[in-house]
Amino acid sequence: xxxxALPPHRIMLTSAGHFVYVLPPGVTSVELLSGxxxxxxxxxxxxxxxxxLALDGIPVALDRPMLASGFHALxxxxxxxxxxxxxxxxxxxxxxxxxxxLEIGIAHVIRSLETDARG
Length: 119
Hints:
There is one protein chain. The chain is mainly β. It has one domain. Helix content is 0%, strand content 51%. The protein has no helices and eleven strands. It has strands at 9-12, 17-23, 29-33, 37-38, 48-55, 58-59, 67-71, 75-77, 80-92, 100-109, 115-116. The strands form two sheets. Strands 1, 2, 3, 5, 6, 7, 8, 9 and 10 form a nine-stranded mixed beta sheet that branches. The protein is globular, with a radius of gyration of 15 Å.
């Protein structure tokens, strides 16, 4: 019997750290939501800075197609890879008939709503 896909699951990112989320069966997309900020001179709208991602205990490289939209290019600082969202990063995955475990490592997160560096 096919698994019915659910609407996007939403996760609000409010602080840095390592977080574990249990996703219900049928989830095919997860929206990682945060505040966002456009630094002066950068031009990118930054939300949350991901440093690690795993699905069901299996690490997911930050340059994989699973990071579907709302993500900036991969960055490397002091041998640490990271990827910023724009405030709404979308992860996609195949539907599962069972719960799934999503682990996310966050280095930085913008907590406020869209702000412009000019005030």
